[in-house]
Amino acid sequence: MLLSNQKRVKIQGIIKRIAQDKPISLEERIYVEKFAHHNSTISLWLKKANSLRRNDIKNDGGIDYLLQSFGVDGLNKENHFNPNKDDISDWFGGAPGWLRRS
Prior knowledge:
The protein is an all-alpha fold and 102 residues long. Helices cover 59% and strands 0% of the residues. The protein contains 6 helices and no strands.
């Protein structure tokens, strides 16, 4: 999905407010989610923003900072895969459509 410069700037503005834990409207959230569902770059931006919002910026150079920079959800223990309780196919079931197809 190609983005115009205007749409990209709008999406980045919304994502920046998410990262700073500032209020956004439901319409803005839906707008960003729609693009994140079809675009891996926007999905990564949104994951990073949510990680920053939940965990603050971890700019200490440690493993948490590395995980945040990749947009990985490994900072929250409830997001970790547990092979004794979780089925791998169910665990990846919540992945965006572009990831499930690959």
